[in-house]
């Protein structure tokens, strides 16, 4: 059986690498072919989605860029407004200073003031909205070119629409001889009482002890900023026909590539006419932060054809603007067709290359595998020779160790029968010399001598059978096997007060009984050595029963405290022992595993087990052996 398996293994070493290389190479080639075919097909399928996704990213980025630009303008609107009114007041102050310096020696201050007033009254800025005003230290309005009716009136206690005394701030500016910004809510000119937030700047004019100022309504200035933003947006172009459109929340176009749309409601144009739902959807998306929308645009710029369009819109809620842009499906499709054509060409080249490389790879690997096979075969033969030598030594050591154990057991087994024979024969001789030997004592002593001699003979037979080199398989009952095993070791175990508790089913096996006995003795001896370290009760438990897999379970455990966790994985290694070198060789349990797994074709595992016996908790090592009931393949 061993020789046949070795031949099979050598054949595997010779041919398996070549077969494996061939199959593996073919598999790799086929895998690469089909996997890449699948990848190319998936890439072709995904290409439309990728291009749509790419274009979506582009339009989203364009809208975000515009959005961030406008946000930047909004953030700086108030600062820019302040800078604007301040610079205007500085211009007016420079004009007033120039007039004063020219006429201070020839005209009175009143005449100079009139000259300054005439000069400043004519100046307008910010699309005609901006003008300059002047006030004195008592709160009198000296100049107001837009509303002449309030000139000469005192406003020291006047409040704005929200109760703020703005003229008191002007008076304080004069008193402090300084300059400052102010903010208040004033009635807008040319409106029906509309109030607007106004930002002003006052500067003290020392020669006349007055303040010169100007202001601008924030919403008016913001509209100017919006106009600037729209001019910037109209200049933006990207791609073939990419542009940014702006619609306010009332549906009026503020910016579009078609200039004729600007200022018109979407219902008045042809691009989204009769698409009220689409516009409302875009409005909702924009107001909620932004997103994509797909729809049919009636007239595509450049073709005037109805075309599917995907747009990205974002809302500028404080200005009530919808900012958006999009791309047309037919533009993407033309790019997709070209990319698919290039992919097909690339795939054809790839298939040719992979077949060529695969063929060369198979040839090279077959040559390498042949050399590897020869090398492995030589190494295997060398290893087998070394292994045979080591196994022979180990078996010899195991037999010598077992023989030593058995000689000790024989000594224990023979001690009592020899003592009985010696006592009986000595008694017979003594009584004969004294002339008092009776027939009754003679026959009784002879019977004891005969019984003891038979016991000695049986012991010799048991040990001879155990050491018999015969390895023939036979049928045997495990009860008898354990009875023989325990007879061989019982003397030492009884002397050490080790109690063996048996629960053995009468199971019949077809295997090698002597080898099983050797394995069991090794386990029992190992338990004995551990139990001798205990001062209290010493138990070994034997459980034998059939399972439902045509197997018998043999479970041996003790209450010696178990095996250290770090030793559990090493317990079956050769020469591993936890005993002193003078007490153990470390091959007993190694040979036990060899016998169980290789000779009896079974399994053996060891673990620490907690259990309760006679209402007491114990812990110990548990060996679990599984053997086939009728295993024809056992060595």
UniProtKB/TrEMBL annotation:
<feature type="transmembrane region" description="Helical">
    <location>
        <begin position="12"/>
        <end position="34"/>
    </location>
</feature>
<keyword id="KW-1003">Cell membrane</keyword>
<dbReference type="InterPro" id="IPR003661">
    <property type="entry name" value="HisK_dim/P_dom"/>
</dbReference>
<keyword id="KW-0418">Kinase</keyword>
<dbReference type="Pfam" id="PF00512">
    <property type="entry name" value="HisKA"/>
</dbReference>
<keyword id="KW-1133">Transmembrane helix</keyword>
<dbReference type="InterPro" id="IPR003594">
    <property type="entry name" value="HATPase_dom"/>
</dbReference>
<dbReference type="GO" id="GO:0005524">
    <property type="term" value="F:ATP binding"/>
</dbReference>
<feature type="transmembrane region" description="Helical">
    <location>
        <begin position="354"/>
        <end position="376"/>
    </location>
</feature>
<feature type="domain" description="Histidine kinase">
    <location>
        <begin position="409"/>
        <end position="631"/>
    </location>
</feature>
<dbReference type="Pfam" id="PF08269">
    <property type="entry name" value="dCache_2"/>
</dbReference>
<dbReference type="InterPro" id="IPR004358">
    <property type="entry name" value="Sig_transdc_His_kin-like_C"/>
</dbReference>
<keyword id="KW-0067">ATP-binding</keyword>
<dbReference type="InterPro" id="IPR005467">
    <property type="entry name" value="His_kinase_dom"/>
</dbReference>
<dbReference type="InterPro" id="IPR004010">
    <property type="entry name" value="Double_Cache_2"/>
</dbReference>
<keyword id="KW-0472">Membrane</keyword>
<dbReference type="InterPro" id="IPR036890">
    <property type="entry name" value="HATPase_C_sf"/>
</dbReference>
<dbReference type="InterPro" id="IPR036097">
    <property type="entry name" value="HisK_dim/P_sf"/>
</dbReference>
<keyword id="KW-0808">Transferase</keyword>
<dbReference type="InterPro" id="IPR033480">
    <property type="entry name" value="sCache_2"/>
</dbReference>
<keyword id="KW-0812">Transmembrane</keyword>
<protein>
    <recommendedName>
        <fullName>histidine kinase</fullName>
        <ecNumber>2.7.13.3</ecNumber>
    </recommendedName>
</protein>
<keyword id="KW-0597">Phosphoprotein</keyword>
<dbReference type="Pfam" id="PF02518">
    <property type="entry name" value="HATPase_c"/>
</dbReference>
<dbReference type="GO" id="GO:0000155">
    <property type="term" value="F:phosphorelay sensor kinase activity"/>
</dbReference>
<keyword id="KW-0902">Two-component regulatory system</keyword>
<keyword id="KW-0547">Nucleotide-binding</keyword>
<dbReference type="GO" id="GO:0005886">
    <property type="term" value="C:plasma membrane"/>
</dbReference>
């Amino acid at each position: 059986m061993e020789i046949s398996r070795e031949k099979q293994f050598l054949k595997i070493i010779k041919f398996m690498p070549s077969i494996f290389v061939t199959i593996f190479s073919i598999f790799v080639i086929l895998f690469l072919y089909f996997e890449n075919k699948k990848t190319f097909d998936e890439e072709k399928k995904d290409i439309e989605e990728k291009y749509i996704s790419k274009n979506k990213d582009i339009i989203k980025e364009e809208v975000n860029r515009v959005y961030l630009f406008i946000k930047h303008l909004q953030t700086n609107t108030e600062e820019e407004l302040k800078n604007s009114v301040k610079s205007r007041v500085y211009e007016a102050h420079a004009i007033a200073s120039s007039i004063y310096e020219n006429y201070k020696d020839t005209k009175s201050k009143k005449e100079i003031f009139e000259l300054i007033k005439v000069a400043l009254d004519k100046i307008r800025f910010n699309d005609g909205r901006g003008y300059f005003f002047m006030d004195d230290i008592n709160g009198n309005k000296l100049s107001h070119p837009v509303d002449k009716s309030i000139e000469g009136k005192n406003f020291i206690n006047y409040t704005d629409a929200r109760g703020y005394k703005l003229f008191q701030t002007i008076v304080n500016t004069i008193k402090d001889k300084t300059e400052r910004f102010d903010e208040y809510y004033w009635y807008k000119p040319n409106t029906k009482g509309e109030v607007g937030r106004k930002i002003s700047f006052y500067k003290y004019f020392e020669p006349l002890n007055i303040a010169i100022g100007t202001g601008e309504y924030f919403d008016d200035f913001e509209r100017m900023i919006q106009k600037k933003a729209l001019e910037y947006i109209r200049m933006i172009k990207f791609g073939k026909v990419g542009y940014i459109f702006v619609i306010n929340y009332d549906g009026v176009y503020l910016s579009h590539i078609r200039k004729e749309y600007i200022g018109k409601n979407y219902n008045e144009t042809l691009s989204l006419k009769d698409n009220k739902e689409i516009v409302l959807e875009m409005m909702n998306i924009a107001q909620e932060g932004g997103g994509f929308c797909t729809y049919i645009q009636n007239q595509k710029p450049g073709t005037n054809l109805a075309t599917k369009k995907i747009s990205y819109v974002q809302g500028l809620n404080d200005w009530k603007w919808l900012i958006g842009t999009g791309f047309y499906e037919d533009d993407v499709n033309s790019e997709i067709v070209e990319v698919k054509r290039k992919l097909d060409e690339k795939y054809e080249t790839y298939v040719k290359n992979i077949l060529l490389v695969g063929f060369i790879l198979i040839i090279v690997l077959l040559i390498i595998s042949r050399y590897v096979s020869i090398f492995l075969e030589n190494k295997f033969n060398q290893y087998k020779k070394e292994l045979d030598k080591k196994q022979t030594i180990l078996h010899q050591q195991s037999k010598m160790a077992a023989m030593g154990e058995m000689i000790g057991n024989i000594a224990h087994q023979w001690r009592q029968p020899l003592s009985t024979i010696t006592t009986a024969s000595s008694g017979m001789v003594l009584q004969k010399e004294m002339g008092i030997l009776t027939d009754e004592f003679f026959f009784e002593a002879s019977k004891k001598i005969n019984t003891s001699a038979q016991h000695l003979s049986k012991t010799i037979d048991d040990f001879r059978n155990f050491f018999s080199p015969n390895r023939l398989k036979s049928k045997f009952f495990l009860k008898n096997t354990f009875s023989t095993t325990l007879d061989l070791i019982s003397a030492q175990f009884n002397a050490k007060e080790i109690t063996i508790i048996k629960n053995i089913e009468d199971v019949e096996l077809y295997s090698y009984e002597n080898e099983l006995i050797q394995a069991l003795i090794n386990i029992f001896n190992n338990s004995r050595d551990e139990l001798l370290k205990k001062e209290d009760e010493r138990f070994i438990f034997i459980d034998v029963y059939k399972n439902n897999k045509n197997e018998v379970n043999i479970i041996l455990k003790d209450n010696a405290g178990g095996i250290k966790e770090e030793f559990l994985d090493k317990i079956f290694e050769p020469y591993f022992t936890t005993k002193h070198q003078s007490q153990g060789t470390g091959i007993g349990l190694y040979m036990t595993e060899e016998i169980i797994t290789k000779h009896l074709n079974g399994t053996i595992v060891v673990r620490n087990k907690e259990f309760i016996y006679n209402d007491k908790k114990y812990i110990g090592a548990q060996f679990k052996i599984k053997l086939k009931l009728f295993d024809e393949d056992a060595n």
